[in-house]
């Protein structure tokens, strides 16, 4: 693996995520400090908790489907990256997203 490329990419992602978290926290703080109604603050916090649960469900279903896809690649015994291997992994990702969609609709 070429770590000279991986390190700057990881640094960029970490900085972008830190900026996102900081801006969201600042926005929440401003809403609370502005003496917004209690209902607004409660709905903001409840909505954030629901987004976290849905995000966990989404990534869990996608990563589970990808794990199954990688397991299938290993079972087939593929040694090289081929278009069929990539198609299998992309299909597993798509199935994971569809599974999330179905689970999310069922939970509502």
Give the C-alpha Rg. Answer: 20 Å
Number of helices: 3
**Mind summarizing the main beta sheet?**
none
Q: In terms of structural class, how would the helical and strand content be classed? A: mainly alpha
Order of helical and strand elements: HHH
- What share of the residues does DSSP label as strand, in percent? under 5%
The termini sit apart by 43 Å
Residue runs with pLDDT of under 50 for 5 or more positions: none
Q: How many individual β-strands?
A: 0
Gross geometry: flat
Mean pLDDT: 86
Q: State the helicity in percent bands.
A: over 70%
Give an account of the 3D structure.
By secondary structure, this protein is mainly α. It has helices at 3-33, 38-76, 83-107. The radius of gyration is 20 Å and the shape is flat. The model has no long low-confidence stretch (mean pLDDT 86).
What brief labels describe this structure?
108 residues, mainly alpha, single chain
Summed up, what is this model?
By secondary structure, the chain is mainly α. The protein contains three helices and no strands. It has a domain of 56 residues.
């Amino acid at each position: 693996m070429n770590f000279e490329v991986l390190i700057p990419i990881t640094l960029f992602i970490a900085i972008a995520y830190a900026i996102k978290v900081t801006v969201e926290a600042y926005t929440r703080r401003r809403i609370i400090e502005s003496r917004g109604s209690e209902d607004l603050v409660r709905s903001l916090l409840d909505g954030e908790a629901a987004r976290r649960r849905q995000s966990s469900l989404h990534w869990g279903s996608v990563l589970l489907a990808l794990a199954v896809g990688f397991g299938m690649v290993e079972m087939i015994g593929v040694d090289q990256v081929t278009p069929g291997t990539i198609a299998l992994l992309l299909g597993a990702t798509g199935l994971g997203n569809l599974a999330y969609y179905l689970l999310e609709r069922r939970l509502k």
